[in-house]
Amino acid sequence: MNDQVVVHVVRYKDRPNWVMRYTDPTTGKQVAKSTGTDRRKDAEKLAAQWEADIRAGRYQKGARVPWGAFRDLFIEQHLGDLAPRSRSSYVVALNAFERVVNIQWLHDATTPTVSRFRAELRNKGLRPTTVANYLRHLAASLKWAQRHGMLAEVPDCRPPKGAGLASGMKGRPITTEEFDRMLTAVPKVVAKDLDPDADDDVIDADPRVATWKFYLRGLWLSGLRLSESLTLTWEDDPDAISVDLRGRRPMLRIPAVVEKGKKNRVLPITPDFAELLETVPAARRRGRVFAVHRHAVSVSQVVCAIGKQAGVKVTDKKFASAHDLRRAFGTRWSRSLSPARLKALMRHSDIATTMRYYVEEDSEELADALFQTLDPASGNVQGNAAQTQNPPAGRKPLKNKG
After folding, report:
1. pLDDT in tens, 132-170
2. Dihedral through CA 227, CA 229, CA 234, CA 240, nearest 10?
3. Which of 17, 135, 290, 335 is paired with 155 by a 20 to 30 Å CA distance?
4. From CA 342, how far away is CA 320, in angstroms rounded?
């Protein structure tokens, strides 16, 4: 009988959002619920999905939806279009929730259950940022269930206090001196068989050393994420980030398929990264720009090993990684760009991320700037000296009370 169901959208004068409804073929009664949107196009999409679920027997009115059935549908219908890493994050979060609370039915995903899940994760010693990530993915999953009529109410999945980006930062921007130490440590990690007493020119001529030093410099100067850097190519490719040196300014062309924000972008290449790219002879500008391992996990492990060899620690327990080079890139350019321009350069979806991570002046540099503007002889701020001695009409000179 379900194959006879046809869902329509209607608009009631006393309701702001479109309503989707159908006539139950068994009882002859109308079944209706809000779409939660005032846009007809979006409402029609939700109605079509609801109709498909009903016809396929996936929609169960009430709360007697097995957790396993919900999970299978969510993975099949929602996660299929996501990047592998994003899919994995959802699956890990759902696995953890199932394991900790031993959930059998979807309606058992209540606020008290989620609170117990949150507390158990904290008791196991998981970091606040990890707990917050689990809860965010769980909340998104349960909201999807509610939109599809499987769950009446989404429980409170707010992360624990103190799990924000600022407090949960997993690293820090490394300094230029630390980066130089990482470059020096490259041979000891990727070419252990080289004679440590050999001349620097001999060591740098080794293809393994040259390749990895070029790659580290690329991360340092480009601000690319590790996974993005591994797709960077000299040629146009719809599935990879490509270098475009044909225009007035060098650009990166970033297709949505490899971009974290899932948008096609054209991004300016910074002058220092352009200089690095131009050191590659034109005849060799073929294929991938960085000829390191293709697998991101292997590359990440090598970069972390280099950070460890160089003794560059970014937290009490963590050595420098590829993402800490990206953080350093953002910090350097924050001193020259406005927050809005830095947000575009870093490709952050939220300006708050830019502000939290990068728009910070180093305290020592700020102190130097303050002291440099003070005239030691008069005690006045040098930039205001002329104004102090020749104030506008109607204003008296400021007295030096020192």
Report:
1. 889 999 999 999 888 887 887 889 998 766 554 444 457
2. 20
3. 17
4. 23
